[in-house]
Amino acid sequence: MTVITRFAPSPTGFLHIGGARTALFNWLYAKHHGGKFYLRIEDTDRARSTPEATQAIIDGMKWLGLEHDGEIVYQFARSSRHAEIAHELVAKGKAFYCYTTQEELEDFRTKNPNAKFRSPYRNGDKPAPAGVPAVIRIKAPMDGETTIHDKVQGSVSIKNSELDDMILLRSDGTPTYMLAVVVDDHDMGITHIIRGDDHHTNSFRQLMIYDAMGWKAPEFAHIPLIHGADGAKLSKRHGALGVDEYRKMGYLPEAIRNYLLRLGWSHGDDEIISTSQAIEWFNLESIGKSPSRFDFAKLENLNGHYIREADDARLVELVIESGKWEVGSDKRKILLRAMNGLKQRAKTIVELAENAAFYVANRPIKLDEKASEIIAKDGKEIIAALLPELKKLEDFTHDNLQQICKNYAEKSGQKLGQKLGNIMSPIRAAITGKTASPSMFEVMEILGKNETIERLRDVC
Hints:
Blueprint: E1 4-7, H1 17-32, E2 36-41, H2 51-64, E3 73-74, H3 79-91, E4 95-98, H4 102-111, E5 135-138, E6 145-150, E7 154-159, E8 167-169, H5 177-187, E9 192-196, H6 200-213, E10 219-223, E11 226-227, H7 243-248, H8 253-262, H9 275-281, E12 292-293, H10 296-309, H11 312-323, H12 329-342, H13 349-360, H14 369-392, H15 398-416, H16 420-432, H17 440-447, H18 449-459
Helix pairs in contact: 1-9, 3-5, 5-6, 8-10, 11-12, 11-13, 12-13, 12-17, 14-16, 14-18, 15-17
């Protein structure tokens, strides 16, 4: 059997982080088994589905690296096929036309708040009223029970008396979600449905359609939902944001994939798991049965790891995009030379861009308040004394720059009480505009002799 999974979001909003994890698990399971992974856009809710949301889902999947097989399936375009199956079920005696009005249904629910609706038209005992539009309802089983052998939750059963004669086709001829999902999954050959455990009740109801049509049902795996760090239901304050927001916040897709994989799935004590390892190791048996907790601190630490491992040229393009900079080839080269040092200290691309900004800044460099204070105190005197030595230096390298500054500190130490750290503070302020940076000898070498000297001159 070829394993075929799917991710089937509704385009009524962004691709949120819980949906991204569901997509990831389906993608990994298919890849692990050498199968297929399909994307289906469930756009039957025409009032709430938008092209913008659809595109956001597609873009989010692409950014995460979760490429789907084949063409995207749009559920609404298959409405006639869904209706065909509803009428076929009527012909089989497995469904029926129901003329119960909304008022009658509300009256029933008011009088029988805990009862499942059984239509009086179910067995043809009540004649069809004239001029009343009909819906098509399934004949729910009355006796016995239904069991799902869930790949995550284990065997779960409910009594069939808990199932209602649900609507398959509305009076206007449009299919319901329950019908459309089953028909699409069957026609697409889906073998495994991996989704959140908030769909567990839906699975029992959808099995009625599989049974009525004589179709083999897929295997089910209902994964626990993601909670916030405090154990409460995941909300925006916890991190229930769209995937695009994580991109804007400076997270790498490989870090998101790794983090989402570890939210509810484990492989021993492994925390850093590459994509190739994830494909090799992933299984449904290692998914936990309890909700996992979203933790931004853990995500940041993991993202920092992937930034340190990332290709420098790729990071250059990402920080330019994040900083919205317009830079030429010369400054790109500077960033590339600087990236190895910069990326050791950053946990997000946004932070990396902030730390790299002084490299691409135009002169004169804007000084922050503390940097201005350092220059105003005695920084100009120190810089003026060092400039002639820097100008004479032909080999403008880290070690040579360090030696010049050490020599100055030793010569002026007895007179001015200067230490190397005190010497470098005004240099750092003048060159970066800040009081913190990578090693200044490294920074000066990367910027080069001309740029370094011009930045120092600007404050004198």
